[in-house]
Amino acid sequence: MALERTFSIIKPDVVARNLIGDIYHRFENAGLRIVAAKMVHLNREEASGFYCHLRSKPFFEELLQFMMSGPVMVQVLEGEDAIKRHREIIGDTDPKKARAGSIRADYATSIDQNAVHGSDCVESAEKEIAYFFTDEELCPRTR
Ligand SMILES: Nc1ncnc2c1ncn2[C@@H]1O[C@H](COP(=O)(O)OP(=O)(O)OP(=O)(O)O)[C@@H](O)[C@H]1O
What we know:
Blueprint: E1 3-10, H1 12-16, H2 20-29, E2 33-40, H3 44-50, H4 60-67, E3 72-80, H5 82-90, H6 103-107, E4 116-118, H7 122-132
Adenosine-5'-triphosphate (ATP) binds near residues 59 and 117.
């Protein structure tokens, strides 16, 4: 197993419902260490830049409106197989298909307001971490 870093967003719906602490508990209980974190309120440029790979999708504008609707928590998580482990805790994009006990099964209200984001591969994780954090903002690697 590889020690990895992944990028995570707690989306506006979950922040508004006072659930940041619960989500952080889930990350830490799963062996994921929070090595950088901050609260940001995305503007249009930041949200559309982050989701630029989805700009041709019919739901793109709706996605931007949601991601700009309130503050989000962005964090970098480190652990063994962190990318896969994080996505397992999150659950399927569609909360109706998400595993029982996953964050999306418990908190997402729909496919578009789905509580959290997690990088899907090493390349996306590196790109997404660099989109929000400078090297100085990241804790040194534990190994
Ligand atoms: N059919 C849809 N209708 C509305 N919104 C959608 C739909 N599909 C995806 N989205 C939104 O776009 C986001 C990114 O979609 P993507 O296909 O990358 O899914 P994902 O990798 O599971 O989600 P994320 O990247 O947020 O972890 C989803 O999390 C969701 O908020």
